[in-house]
TrEMBL record:
SUPFAM superfamilies: MFS general substrate transporter. InterPro entries: MFS (IPR011701), MFS_dom (IPR020846), MFS_trans_sf (IPR036259), Proton-linked_MCT (IPR050327). It is a multi-pass membrane protein. It is found in: Cell membrane. Keywords: Membrane, Transmembrane, Transmembrane helix. Residues 1-419 form the Major facilitator superfamily (MFS) profile domain. This is Sugar phosphate permease. It comes from Krasilnikovia cinnamomea. GO terms for cellular component: plasma membrane. The chain crosses the membrane at residues 33-55, 67-89, 95-113, 125-146, 152-174, 238-261, 273-295, 307-325, 331-353, 360-383, 395-415.
Length: 447
């Protein structure tokens, strides 16, 4: 199950490498502005984030296998149909809507659902490996797509992404199952009665569940997601975390992930070389995420986030001076550092959501992740407009650096709530550390 889920995530991740490679070729062939093309990327990033909180409800109602197969087909259709487009709105429909919905249905909710249902032991390890599937997809596809685009044109690259997603569909249909009971086994590391016990507990706890009136479980899950958002939105920690994570998305997927290759090309660097550098980000991303998880168990997560964002901001401020026609050592050092810091923010952010919002922490993190994608969407379009109007990306890099420094301040502001709670008072987080929700609501968000 873990292997099939990993392959499915890699197959869907092929599109994550596509925009940065195809931005320039689409601009040259159709004459569309970079702002217009970036808008399609922004729609994709936005739907990717907004779909994720509801993906669990879809999997609960239709099953993991059906949802994942449908998601892969959407990715394949969205990427494949671009070869027939002739207008920019068709790019928004294909890249933005179809692929956005497809990849959003296979985001963090897919990883969480597989690990929670199929593993009792090694959940953390499997979660880390599956999360790395996106980075692995970027690492695999970026150099290939850049080479295909250079040798055979952008349509060959788009069809390759569509084919990769389609190739995984038969494997998902053959091997992916909804629950261990479907194969007559128990979850890894579980006793014979664990699955039934956990399913019963989840059903009883879900707002609007059958135990409370026989309401559709998908509707109960959706109400739980919206209920968690309503409660979390009334607390200071949520907005500090969401604000910081929105800037995280803006400075990673939205800016570097989308515009690094065309920006490097502006300075004479071949697109294949720039794609290779961006692929290295994916490689070091894996190491950085594992290291950050280790540090999260030992260092205050607020301090970690403050440090991560501050270092990211400083690196972005020096990036404009590093671009050149060749990949000189200073740029390689930047890529190494930025890769280590790329999603290092995820483990401490997850830990803080759990600390402040208790049992609802996973759902709240889904909404914080949605803010991440909103930030990415805004940055993708804004950077394209900056390039169109000013003829260079420098203002975008400097603005992103300043925003990352602001995110560091937002993260450190969470320390004030901790100090108040440690003294036994009621701080910005609410009634004590770990209780941003009222005590009666921490275990079950209001429907």
């Amino acid at each position: 199950m873990a292997a099939v889920a990993f392959v499915a995530l890699v197959g869907a991740a092929g599109f994550r490498a596509t925009p940065s490679v195809l931005l320039r070729p689409l601009h040259e062939e159709f004459g569309w502005s970079l702002g217009t093309i970036s808008a399609a990327v922004s729609v994709n990033l936005l739907l990717y984030g907004l779909t994720a909180p509801f993906a669990a409800a879809l999997m609960e109602k239709f099953g993991i296998r059906r949802v994942v197969m449908g998601a892969l087909l959407l990715v394949a259709a969205g990427s494949g149909l671009t070869v027939l487009m002739s207008a920019s709105w068709q790019l928004v429909l294909c890249w933005g809507v179809l692929v956005g919905l497809g990849t959003g249905s296979m985001a963090l909710a897919f990883v969480a659902t597989v690990t929670n249902r199929w593993f009792v032991r090694r959940r953390g390890l499997v979660t880390g490996v599956l999360t790395a599937g996106g980075a692995a997809g970027q690492l695999i596809f970026l150099p290939i797509l850049a080479r295909l685009t250079g040798d055979h044109g952008w349509r060959a690259a788009a069809l390759t992404v569509a084919g990769a997603a389609l190739l995984v569909v038969p494997l998902v249909w053959w091997r992916l199952r909804d629950r261990p009971a479907d194969l007559g086994v128990t979850a890894y590391g579980a006793g014979p009665d664990t699955a039934a016990t956990e399913d019963a507990a989840l059903t009883a706890a879900a707002p609007g569940s059958a135990a409370r009136g026989g309401v559709d479980p998908a509707g109960g899950a959706a109400r739980a997601a919206l209920g968690a958002l309503r409660q979390a939105a009334g607390t200071r920690p949520f907005w500090l975390l969401a604000g910081g994570f929105a800037i995280c998305g803006a400075t990673t997927n939205g800016l570097i992930g989308t515009h690094f290759i065309p920006a490097a090309h502006d300075h004479g660097m071949p697109e294949t070389t720039a794609a290779g550098l961006l692929a290295l980000v994916g490689l070091f991303d894996i190491a950085g995420t594992i290291a950050s998880g280790w540090l999260t168990d030992r260092v205050d997560s607020r301090l970690l986030l403050g440090a991560y964002y501050a270092l990211r901001g400083l690196s972005l401020l020096v990036l404009p001076a590093l671009f050149a026609a060749t990949a000189h050592p200073s740029m390689v050092v930047f890529i190494l550092f930025y890769g280590l810091d790329w999603v290092a923010t995820v483990p401490p952010t997850v830990a803080l959501c759990r600390e402040y919002f208790g049992a609802a922490g996973a759902i709240v993190f889904g909404w914080v992740f949605a803010a991440h994608q909103v930030g990415a969407a805004v940055a993708a379009t804004a950077a394209g407009l900056v390039r169109d109007r000013l003829g260079a990306y420098d203002a975008a890099w400097y603005s992103a650096g300043a925003l990352a420094l602001a995110a560091s301040v937002l993260s450190l502001m969470l320390l004030a709530g901790r100090r108040t709670a440690d003294r036994g008072g009621v701080g910005p987080a609410g009634a004590g550390l770990g209780l941003a929700y009222p005590a009666a609501s921490a275990s079950a968000p209001a429907p």
